[in-house]
Specification:
Radius of gyration: 21 Å
Structural class: alpha/beta
Distance between the termini: 53 Å
Largest sheet: 7 strands, mixed
Mean pLDDT: 93
Shape: globular
CATH topology of the largest domain: Rossmann fold
Length: 352
């Protein structure tokens, strides 16, 4: 990377522990620190400057894609630091949204990731979903699972990502990483090909469409462990999203298939904590017999109550998690209320 200005911004983001950097034509650089946006420089960036940043970041092939579609995903490195970005045109020129990738993935306890994922991730086959809004740490959770598997089992793990964020060094596992646009044309094709590459575990960065969802379910059904994400809020909503992608005449079949292969869903969000940082809040649904029956019978409205009344099985709702974090003094009562899902707040459901 040639431009020292962009390097300066990225180094500053690392120093202030910003998660994201926003570069926009006609604006000053803005970073997201502990969930809040903060101006980090007084220099107003011109359209030409931002375009020079873009030329530094993108390959020749990506520049062609950007010119054709007006937006493009990419990733890049500066030294041993990696970044993910989306570059796009807007009304006043160009914009770049850059996500800083923390190379050192912490363990489950340090990150607040539910320990139940350890038990689920060593299963020989099935589907594990990590869901939540953009920027909620889904990729970090997947990386923690892969690092855990790399320590405790012997397996061939294939990751299919757009773009690659975390990089892995094989320990007990052989780890193959493929990036959409560079190593494969699209998710469905790469996922279909992975089934012929002798995988034990397939990590699919995102289940985006009907074809990738169908292939992921088939992979889980045919003896592979599949890890993936959805941009949904709440475990019940995730089930609805998967089923609703399919035509009406196929939905009952998908309910049955999903009830057979789904191991669990963890929905998560990052909530500002009292120390000025952010803490992970989660919701856990484990597919025991009761949950499988609810999914198979299409009674997804019962999932929330089933989770809230199954603490002994390791399940709990987002509302329960936030309440516990508030009682422990991790988050404020105001943020507890702010980040509680509207459906939970409106239901008046009993807290366990």
């Amino acid at each position: 990377m040639k431009d020292n200005t962009l390097i300066k911004y990225l180094k500053l983001c690392e120093r202030i522990e910003a998660s994201d950097l926003h570069i926009k034509s006609g604006k000053c650089a803005i970073a997201r620190v502990a969930g809040a946006l903060k101006q980090i420089d007084d220099t107003v960036l011109t359209r030409e400057q931002v375009f020079s940043f873009i030329q530094d970041i993108l390959t020749e092939k990506q520049m062609v894609e950007f010119e054709q579609f007006c937006d493009v995903d990419s990733s890049f490195s500066i030294g041993d630091r990696r970044f993910r970005c989306n570059i796009y045109r807007e009304f006043n020129g160009f914009s770049i949204s850059i996500r800083r990738i923390i190379n050192e993935v912490g363990d489950f306890r340090a990150l607040g990731i539910p320990e139940v994922l350890k038990n689920l991730s060593v299963k020989k086959s099935g589907l594990i979903l990590i869901t939540g809004p953009t920027g909620s740490g889904k990729t970090t959770t997947l990386a923690s699972i892969i690092n855990y598997l790399n320590r405790v089992i012997t397996a061939h793990i294939i990751t299919i990502e757009d773009p690659i964020e975390y990089t892995y060094t094989g320990n007990r596992c052989v780890i193959t990483q493929r990036e959409i646009g560079r190593d494969a044309s699209d998710y469905p094709r790469a996922l279909r090909a992975s089934l012929r590459q002798d995988p034990d575990v397939i990590m699919l960065g995102e289940m985006r469409d009907l074809e990738s969802i169908r292939t992921a379910l088939t992979a889980a059904e045919t003896g592979h462990l599949v890890l993936s994400t959805l941009h949904t809020t709440g475990a019940a909503n995730s089930i609805d999203r998967i089923i609703d992608v399919f035509p009406a005449d196929q939905q009952q079949q998908i309910r049955v298939q999903l009830s057979m292969v789904l191991l669990g869903v963890v929905s998560q969000q990052l909530v500002p904590n009292v120390k000025g940082g952010r803490s992970l809040a989660t919701e856990v649904m484990i597919c025991n017999g009761a949950i499988k029956n609810i999914i198979r019978e299409g009674k997804n409205y019962q999932l929330q109550n089933a989770m809230m009344t199954s603490r002994s099985a390791g399940m709990y709702s987002m509302e329960q998690c936030l309440d516990a974090m508030c009682r422990q003094g991790i988050i404020s009562p105001e943020n507890c209320q702010l980040y509680t899902p509207a459906s939970a707040a409106n239901s008046g459901a009993n807290r366990q």
